[in-house]
Amino acid sequence: MKKLDAVLFCLVAFCLFCATLSAQNTKTPKEFKIPASYTPVKLEPSLDAQTILVAAVGETLEKFKDKNLKAENVAATLIDLRDPNNLKWATVRGEDKIYPASVVKMFYMNALERRLEDGQVTMTPELERGLKDMIVDSSNEATQYILDVLTGTSSGSEMPEKDFIKWAYKRNIVNRFYAAQGYQNINVNQKTFCEDAYGIEQQFRGYKGNNRNMLTTNATARLLTEIVLGKTNTPERTAVMMNLMKRDFSGTTKDNDDQAHGFTGIALINKGMKDAKLWSKAGWTSTTRHDAAYIETPDGLKFVLVVFTEKFANERNIIPTIAEKILDKLGKTK
Questions:
Q1: pTM for the complete prediction?
Q2: CA distance 267 to 148
Q3: Residues near 60 by Cβ (< 8 Å), separated by ≥ 6?
Q4: Burial of 91 from C-beta contacts in 10 A (0-12 / 13-18 / 19+)
Q5: Residue ranges per domain, the chain?
Q6: pLDDT one-digit tens code per residue, 301-321
Q7: Whose CA is closest to 289, among 306, 318, 313?
Q8: What is the pLDDT of residues 264-289, one digit of tens each?
Q9: CATH number at 29-330
Q10: What does R_g of the chain's alpha carbons equal in angstroms?
């Protein structure tokens, strides 16, 4: 009899476990809350800034013309933050949708901080570790975990159409969060991988990459600006995000893809601007090389510069060349 009781107990426990697991996989998370006090940053087109950015990109194209760098390989957005009440901006191909690589992780970080502030997610040591690794080390595995937390979805086998539609709706919750804030021409619903997606993740991509992440330099620059200015969340939570993106470009590294030394930071190193400050989120694949950076200099410059490059993933100097020219010229304007 005791053996039978033990078997029944194990059977009941297993059934409860399966029921709990099923509930976790079918529960739709609450939609993100947009604070009533939130207003998007107001960006005014600036002739001076536009002239500077167009010249910076143009001169960079000329410098790398022997490597066949063309206008369609570069997109950039510049926002001058010296006067937070009068933000001036410029853009070159800033509304073109481009695969963002790991730059998308900044969008997931901001979404997670919103969830935490609204009490829809509770911070744990493991979640804190995942957030740090996603932004500081640009870990793809950590990003997969964070997106599961944000959306209530998980990877696994392919699903029948009825179940897949429900799963896809949940996964798109981050897109709805940004759409509610007026973001356009972006797609932020995919995990990042070192190799490739499988199962439901590949099904969600339409098996041909049709639903890949996409960002514009304009949208990326807007989000970074709003984080810098503390508009996306409380001062404490935006400070957390800024700390995660803080880059120390002093010293040296053997890693060509180090976020502090391999992207916009090269410009500060080349110009000997050791007292400048850099916050950034870079992204790179076999075909793309991007950086979203915020820079402050001792002489008062404060600007966001987002540069996306395609088909020149191994050319480390395109992004810092544009940044150097911005540093040289922006300080001469008011």
A1: 0.91
A2: 36
A3: 69, 74, 318, 321, 322, 325
A4: buried
A5: 29-330
A6: 999 999 999 999 999 999 999
A7: 313
A8: 999 999 999 999 999 999 999 999 99
A9: 3.40.710.10
A10: 22
